[in-house]
Each structure stands twice: as structure tokens, then as C-alpha cells.
Design a protein that fits this description.
Chain lengths: ~425, ~180
């Protein structure tokens, strides 16, 4: 190989690493398009990269061949530790709904472990048991005994699974329904072969199509979700419950007495106290990443990010819901926002902290507050739009009145928006 | 959202085809997204999309070409969703890359290549093997590896190109020795 060819191969590596400027990108692409040998090298490196990553997973895990598939997830980095299985679970949902979930699982196993040149795709044998399909840093509580949960463990009625901060697990039901527990302390309890309680945390669900008289349901302390056969994400915590439906339809019954709602694909619903926070990956409230219910708004992110799913710069958040005032009087609403924030109450702007405003000057001048008349027992709609471009970031929301000293608005004095897309506009 | 076919067996064919080309599609989409984790996401989404769009596939045409088109669309959408912008790919290059990947073999042959890759990896000189481990096993960035090994980035890229070349030769020989 000539040194020029060696240099070009080095440039191919730089290209794969995304480390070329636009001119370099164009140049190497032209070279690859016209030089068949160089392009074959490129194809080979791509294949090796993919296969080395697969080998790395196995080596990190030190798994035996018989357990490779079940531990596939555990060797991944945090960012993708759920992304990969969740997407497979989504695929499983398409197939499981038609009783073909086993194809995907089987093929996944084959893709990782096969040592024979033929890939045989056969349906998985149905099992009557509810079992843990994958587990990483998860504990199983059964009959008062807590032990590490392992893939393949059978779940009995009343058993609890708890995912540690970096733990994750999936549970498979005989009908192909799959629940995937996200990291961060998610706890579930098996109540029956048709019901699970989400005690805290977040899960993704792919529920197989249900018979007309058979509804899978998930219970939380603040809502019941009856599932007809669908895919959705669910959050439960002391602040309330939020569900977001990707496919199908769920029936959402808040326990605080709010009306029952049918939530269709693309929709969401929430119960509990606080405001619904919708987080966007841009500063223009367009590229939504996730939503959650938040109690008191008092965030001091500094130069950090509000959540691993978005960066520390160029993001935005829209909090929306209802204020539940205790008195008939003028309330002063205060909002601190860095970089920028705007608060509406019943459609009127009460605070406007524009980009570039000085926090201290805004506090001194009173620009970060506004007065609004609220009536006891009559919910007032509130929307708080916040965006961050760069540097430090923070956001909070307080109120005061003749009867109330200045304070963060308590979670129990707020009710989250329904979360239905389009319903959050000021 | 597309309505899934009512006949459950309708899923079997697309999924069987996908499984038979999974590694090729992963390598292809890796070229587009240039991130192994994003590539895994993309290939999973591609499986779903292939199943959903199966009716659009003209079965008189080669499946790999059609599947790569799906994978490319998914990969680009994922890049946009993740706020990443990369220069557009030269169409001729992508087409040629697809052909090259096809020539590397079907899924079973790629599995065989992976077994050889593992053997060849064990026989690399320790310094090269250490670089591979840092990059692919520990997911360290090239900049980080360059600093740790007191190399310039340029030298590191060339070192990796040589390592991949050695592995490629070793795999092709099927001898297990670089």
C-alpha cells in the first residue's frame, strides 16, 4: 500500500468519526465514490465496527452462550441502554399484537449468538408464566425476601420488581405483552395476570391486542390505565401520573375524581398535582423530547442540563396546568427565568422575562412579576414558557397575596394540564 | 399511522427478510448516522418500518436495495430528531457502498466473519489490540485515545486504518493470523 493510499484510509477513519470539515467530507466522498478499493475498505471498516461493538457487549458481560440474548441490554452505555430494547419492544408490539412476538425475540437471539450459518425464524413457545425477560440491577421482592432479579425469573402474584438508579428490566406476559421498566427507581408489583401496579418511576408498555372482555390494566396511586392493546409510556410518582400513548387507545381514570378519559394514539393524559412540563430539544418549543409532571417549579440547572435526554443549551420547556387559589384576592405571580420566560394566567401575560434580561435588575424593577385577580375555588389556567440558549439556566415560579407570604407555588395548589398536544397554548 | 395487515402471516415474510440482512443494514446505517448507538436505534426502527411498508415493496426487485432505502430514510430522520446535521451523502457512494456490503456476504457469512474477527482480534499486537479495546470496547473518543496514547489525531486515524486493514486481511485469509 502506498503512503498516499495509507493517508486516504486514515481520512476514511476520520470521515467515519465525523471529524472532517465540509470540504474534507466532500473530498473523501468523491474519493470513495470513484475508488472501488477504498470503498471496499470503507465497507469493511463499517462492518468491523458493528461487529466489534457486538463482540464488546459480550466481552463486557462475560456471558455464556446460553445467556447472551437475555443479557444483551446490560452491556450498553446509559444513553442507549433503553433505546435499543425499547425500539425492539416497539417492533415486538407490532408482531406481538398478532401473536408473532416470538419472531422478534428469536431473531434478536439469533442476531447475537448464532454460531450456525442458518438463521431459523420460528415462533417462541408460549409460556403460561409471567416472567422477567431481561434484568440489569433489578431486585425482586417475593414473600418478603429481596434478591437480585435475573432473566427468566418467574413473577408470582404480589411480587415486586425494583430497578435501581441504573437498572432496567422487562416483563413478558403469556399473551406477548411486554413492560419495560426504565432506570431510576422504577417499581412495579404484579397484582394479577391482567394488572400491574406502577408504584413509582417510568415504564414503557407494549400490550398485545386484548379480547373484548379482557383488559390489561396498570394501576398507580393516582390513576388507573385500562389498556385495550397498545403501546405507551407511563410515569408514576408522588407528583401524579402521566401517560403518553404511541399506538392504540387507553382508558385513563384519575383517582382524584376527574373525569375518565379515553386517550388515543398521539394523546396523553395526566393526573395529580403540579404542572405538566413538556421539554423540547430546541429553543422554539417544536422538537418535543419528553413530558413529566412537576411539583414546585424551582430549577437551578446552572450550566447543566435538566435531563440527560436534552442538552444544557438550546432547549425549551412549557409548563401548563391550573392554579387552585385559596382566596379571593390579588395574587402576585413571580417568575425567574434564565435565559427567558413568559407566564400567562387565563390567557393574559403576567410575566415576561425576555432574552438578555438581567435577573437582579428584573427583580429590582419588578419586571419579573405581575398581579392577577384569582378567585377561591376557581382554577386559573397557567402556562409558563421557558427557553435556554446558552450559559447558565434557571426557572422558578412563586406567588404571594395579602394572605400569603411570597413562596414557591405549592404542588397541591396546581393541577397539571391534560397533556393533549395542542392544548397547551397560552 | 399505518394499519397493520390483518393477516398475521403477513408479518412473517418482511421480518424473515429483515433478519437475513440485519448486519448489512446495520453497517449501512452506521455509515449514515456514524454513531453505533444511533445505528442500533435506526436498524430497530428499520425493522418496524419494513414490516409496516411491506406492501410497498415490489418483490420482483432485490430486497437489500429496497431495505437500504428504508434504512437511509430512518437514519436521516433519526439524525434530524437528535439535532445532528451531517453533510449529505453522495448518492453514487451510497449505492456503491450498498453493493460492497452485499459482496461481503449474506447474514450467515457475516456471522462467520464475526467469528474470524474475534480470533483475529486476539492475535493483534498488544498495542493495536489496546487501541481497539479503547475505541470499541470502552467507547472512548478518538481525541481521548490520542491523548492517552500520546499520538496526534492524524496518527491515530492512520493507526486505526492499519489495524482495520490487518483485521480485514486476517479475516479474508480465514487463518486467524493477521
Amino acid at each position: 500500500m502506498t503512503s498516499e493510499a495509507g493517508d486516504l484510509r486514515g481520512e476514511v477513519m476520520r470521515f467515519i468519526a465525523g471529524d472532517l470539515d465540509p470540504a474534507g467530507e466532500t473530498a473523501i466522498q468523491s474519493a470513495l465514490a470513484s475508488d472501488a478499493e477504498l470503498r471496499r475498505f470503507y465497507a469493511d471498516v463499517l462492518l468491523q465496527s458493528v461487529q466489534l461493538a457486538e463482540l464488546a457487549d459480550k466481552r463486557r458481560l462475560g456471558v455464556s452462550p446460553s445467556r447472551r440474548m437475555t443479557h444483551r441490554r446490560t452491556g450498553r452505555q446509559p444513553r442507549s441502554s433503553l433505546a435499543f430494547p425499547s425500539r425492539w419492544l416497539a417492533a415486538a408490539g407490532v408482531l406481538a399484537a398478532l401473536g408473532l412476538g416470538g419472531y422478534l425475540v428469536q431473531s434478536h437471539r439469533a442476531s447475537v449468538t448464532t454460531t450456525t450459518p442458518t438463521i431459523v425464524v420460528t415462533p417462541a413457545t408460549p409460556s403460561a408464566a409471567i416472567r422477567v425477560a431481561e434484568a440489569r440491577n433489578v431486585e425482586l421482592r417475593a414473600d418478603g425476601v429481596v434478591r437480585p432479579a435475573t432473566a427468566g425469573a418467574i413473577l408470582g402474584l404480589g411480587n415486586e420488581l425494583s430497578a435501581n438508579v441504573d437498572g432496567a428490566a422487562s416483563i413478558v406476559f403469556p399473551d406477548g405483552t411486554i413492560l419495560s421498566l426504565r432506570p431510576g427507581g422504577t417499581r412495579v408489583r404484579l397484582d394479577s395476570d391482567q394488572q400491574v401496579s406502577l408504584l413509582s418511576g417510568n415504564l414503557d408498555a407494549v400490550v398485545a391486542k386484548q379480547a373484548p372482555d379482557h383488559h390489561f390494566s396498570i394501576h398507580t396511586t393516582s390513576a388507573d390505565i385500562a389498556v385495550i392493546g397498545t403501546r405507551f409510556s407511563l410515569h408514576a410518582g408522588s407528583d401524579g401520573t402521566a401517560v403518553r400513548v404511541q399506538e392504540g387507545r387507553v382508558r385513563f381514570t384519575p383517582s382524584e375524581g376527574s373525569p375518565v378519559r379515553e386517550v388515543a394514539a398521539g394523546g396523553a393524559a395526566a393526573s395529580g398535582h403540579g404542572l405538566l412540563g413538556v421539554y423540547f430539544r430546541d429553543e422554539k418549543f417544536t422538537d418535543e423530547v419528553f413530558r413529566r409532571i412537576e411539583g414546585k417549579l424551582n430549577f437551578w440547572w446552572g450550566r447543566g442540563s435538566p435531563d440527560p435526554r436534552i442538552g444544557a443549551a438550546n432547549f425549551s420547556v412549557r409548563w401548563s396546568g391550573w392554579l387552585l387559589p385559596e382566596h379571593d384576592e390579588d395574587y402576585t405571580i413571580y417568575a425567574i427565568s434564565d435565559d427567558s420566560g413568559k407566564v400567562w394566567v387565563d390567557g393574559a401575560v403576567v410575566v415576561n422575562n425576555p432574552m438578555g434580561h438581567e435577573l437582579e435588575a428584573s427583580e429590582k424593577s419588578g419586571a419579573n412579576r405581575g398581579i392577577v385577580r384569582l378567585r377561591k375555588g376557581i382554577p386559573a389556567r397557567i402556562v409558563y414558557e421557558f427557553f435556554q440558549i446558552y450559559g447558565t439556566s434557571c426557572a422558578n415560579l412563586e406567588w404571594s397575596s395579602p394572605s400569603l407570604p411570597k413562596q414557591l407555588i405549592p404542588a397541591e395548589r396546581m393541577r397539571p394540564d391534560t397533556g393533549v398536544p395542542g392544548a397547551s397554548a397560552p | 399511522m399505518d394499519t397493520p395487515p390483518s393477516d398475521s402471516t403477513a408479518y412473517e415474510a418482511p421480518f424473515r427478510h429483515f433478519v437475513a440482512h440485519r448486519t448489512m443494514l446495520k453497517a449501512y446505517v452506521m455509515a449514515i448516522v456514524r454513531d453505533p448507538h444511533l445505528a442500533e436505534d435506526a436498524v430497530s426502527d428499520t425493522a418496524v418500518e419494513i414490516t409496516r411498508c411491506w406492501a410497498d415493496f415490489d418483490q420482483t426487485r432485490p430486497f437489500p436495495n429496497w431495505a437500504r432505502g428504508v434504512a437511509r430514510r430512518i437514519g436521516l430522520a433519526l439524525l434530524r430528531k437528535n439535532g445532528r446535521t451531517l453533510p449529505l451523502f453522495n448518492a453514487e457512494l451510497l449505492e456503491g457502498l450498498g453493493d460492497d456490503l452485499d459482496h461481503l456476504g449474506a447474514e450467515a457469512e457475516l456471522e462467520q466473519r464475526k467469528r474470524m474477527l474475534r480470533e483475529c482480534l486476539d492475535k493483534l499486537p498488544s498495542g493495536s489490540r489496546s487501541l481497539v479495546e479503547m475505541r470499541y470496547f470502552n467507547n472512548r473518543a478518538y481525541e481521548d485515545i490520542a491523548t492517552a496514547t500520546k499520538r496526534t489525531l492524524n496518527a491515530l486515524y492512520i493507526a486505526f486504518s492499519r489495524i482495520h486493514g490487518q483485521l480485514s486481511t486476517c479475516i479474508s485469509r480465514g487463518s486467524g493470523s493477521p
